[in-house]
Write a structure and sequence with these properties.
This protein is an alpha/beta fold. It is 50% helix and 12% strand. It is built from 10 helices and 6 strands, in the order βαβαβαβαβαβααααα. The protein has helices spanning 19-31, 43-53, 69-79, 94-102, 115-126, 136-149, 166-176, 181-188, 192-206, 211-220; strands spanning 11-15, 35-40, 57-60, 84-89, 107-110, 131-132. Strands 2-1-3-4-5-6 form a 6-stranded parallel sheet, sandwiched between helices. The protein is globular and about 50 Å long. It comes from Streptomyces malaysiensis subsp. samsunensis. The modification 4-aspartylphosphate is found at residue 61. GO terms for molecular function: DNA binding.
Length: 226
């Protein structure tokens, strides 16, 4: 069984407009020990069921009837910001990838991925790691750098940045360099759980919702080069 750190199963919802594909993905996830709490075949249905079922991870296709995947992502995350979204799409177009990330997706996997790659991606997404099909991670990082280079018009009106502890800053710097929680734990000789706690505290202080936003925040401040 695939469980959270508190021992309960990771709950997953699968959204795709092709019934055979949707059922196959749901079956593979269930057989691997995930608790598949809902499925949906169109955008409006996905929003309703995701809000009702409250999964840990939403496996989401972008090309949906009724409401596009990126809009589903935005709506569901507005209601449940702690939800993790893994886009599973046939499109590797850069514009689609960036649009998905900007809408709040934590990861992006192509449908050409193997079952093992999908299961690993869902596990890592549940743990808070950003997961991207090889070749796309650099694209996303490049986009964060581009966005970080653009002036923020409201910067003058924003309050001073919250004070992070030395250890929180250290963890944030390693997150920005792309290390997984496991690698950070080994590097700093602390437990995986402690790394997660530091990240959660940092998210709270900075009023960010997920690790993807945290990486962007860190890059904007040059922490990935430090």
């Amino acid at each position: 069984m695939t469980t959270q750190h508190d021992g309960r199963p990771v709950t997953v919802m699968v959204v795709d407009d092709h019934p055979m594909w949707r059922d196959a993905v749901a079956r593979d996830l269930a057989e691997a020990g995930f608790d598949v709490v809902a499925t949906a075949g169109d955008g409006p249905q996905a929003v309703r069921r995701a809000k009702a079922a409250g999964p840990d991870v939403l496996v989401l296709d972008l090309n949906l009837p009724g409401l596009a995947g990126v809009e589903v992502c935005k709506e569901v995350l507005a209601d449940r910001p702690e939800l993790r979204v893994l886009v599973l799409s046939a499109s590797g177009e850069h514009a689609d990838v960036l649009e998905a990330v900007k809408s709040g997706a934590t990861g992006y996997l192509l449908k050409s991925a193997s079952t093992e790659e999908l299961l690993d991606a869902v596990r890592r997404t549940a743990a808070g790691d950003p997961v991207f099909t090889p070749g796309l991670a650099g694209l996303v990082l490049g986009e964060y750098r581009r966005l970080a280079g653009e002036p923020t018009p409201t910067a003058a009106d924003q309050p001073a940045a919250p004070q992070l502890t030395e250890r929180e800053t250290e963890v944030l710097r390693l997150v920005a360099k792309g290390l997984s929680y496991k690698q950070i734990a080994e590097r700093l000789v602390i437990s995986h759980r402690t790394v997660q706690n530091h990240v959660q505290n940092t998210l709270g202080k900075l009023q960010l919702h997920n690790r993807v936003e945290l990486v962007r925040y860190a890059i904007e401040r040059g922490l990935d080069d430090a």
